[in-house]
Amino acid sequence: MVRVPKLTRAEVAQAVWNPLQYIAERWTPSPRTVRRAAMTSVVLAVVIIVAGGAVRLTGSGLGCPTWPKCSDDSLTATSEMGLHGAIEFGNRMLTYVLCAVVGWAIIAARSAKPWRRSVTRLGWAQFWVVMGNAVLGGVVVLVGLNPYTVAAHFLLATALLTIALLTWQRIREGDTAPRPLVGKAVSQLTWLLVVAAGLLIAVGTVVTGAGRHAGDSSDVHRIPIDWKTIAQLHADLAWVVVALTVALWFVLKAVDAPVGPLHRARDLFLILMAQGVIGYVQYFTDTPEILVGLHMFGSCLVWIGVVRVLLSQRERPVDTPQVPGPAAEQPEPATV
């Protein structure tokens, strides 16, 4: 049996009004624990995106026809709602898991010694994006899976993934000013790649909004645009991203850049090749659900690869305290 420590009234008040500080004063996580908490947030951000795609691809978007309840009479899914209700309600419950993981990351970052306010703020940014996207998810249901709100829901989830990645990266760095590892021209080329990849993902949501996977078997409004035309634009942007990645790879080799940016550019190229194969196969096979789901997972990997390429081009050395050496021995005064 573990003895429960007795708490004074002051300690109880502190635990109620400032629980993070209360925990931080009594727990110091190891750097490995803090990194694991941040990486778990990244993984869950990917899982929530793929799970949202599964809801749409199985036609379960209106499995729970209202929000925040699952139905007018029940907070949870009932047996009458069938498999669609279970899938949609399970996706809603996954949001609470994500909140718990982000909360763990916030607590770990706040309790680390020394405390780094910038990392804690990134953790809170994740939390508020999760809350905002949960509300937006409710709006998506209330407006009957309007494709524009579905697209915004996906893009906000991608923003969560971006912040989670940045949090994980910042934990592994120091708080000194970032020092660029490449020249200005290479940095500008990289930002052009980032913009092109962002447009690629945004146009991908339009392809989804105009495509045949509406998210429900009912008559769901679709974006009034030719699906094949917007899919062709999406493919063209994908080739632009590939070309920029190859160009960046060769430029990094030409300027003898550090291995970090080189390896990240190589990884992104390989991810793009795999994603392109899946994209073309799903296009010519009438977009089967399993391939569309894999393509959504691939879009997460593409964006992770792009962000890592960008972050690899600067460094923030970890601050190491200066430890004074032993004082020089003073000669003893001569005695007369």
Keywords:
68% helix; 336 residues; disordered C terminus; 2 strands; flat; mainly alpha
Description:
By secondary structure, the chain is an all-alpha fold. The protein is 68% helix and 1% strand. The protein contains 10 helices and 2 strands. The longest helix has 30 residues. The N and C termini lie far apart (70 Å). The C terminus is likely disordered.
Question: In a few lines, what is going on in this structure?
Answer:
With 336 residues, this protein is mainly alpha-helical.
**Major sheet size, sense and barrel closure:** 2 strands, antiparallel
**Residue share in β-strands:** under 5%
Class inferred from helices and paired strands? mainly alpha
Number of strands: 2
Tally of helical segments: 10
From the spread of the alpha carbons, the general shape counts as flat
SSE series? HHHHHHEHHHHE
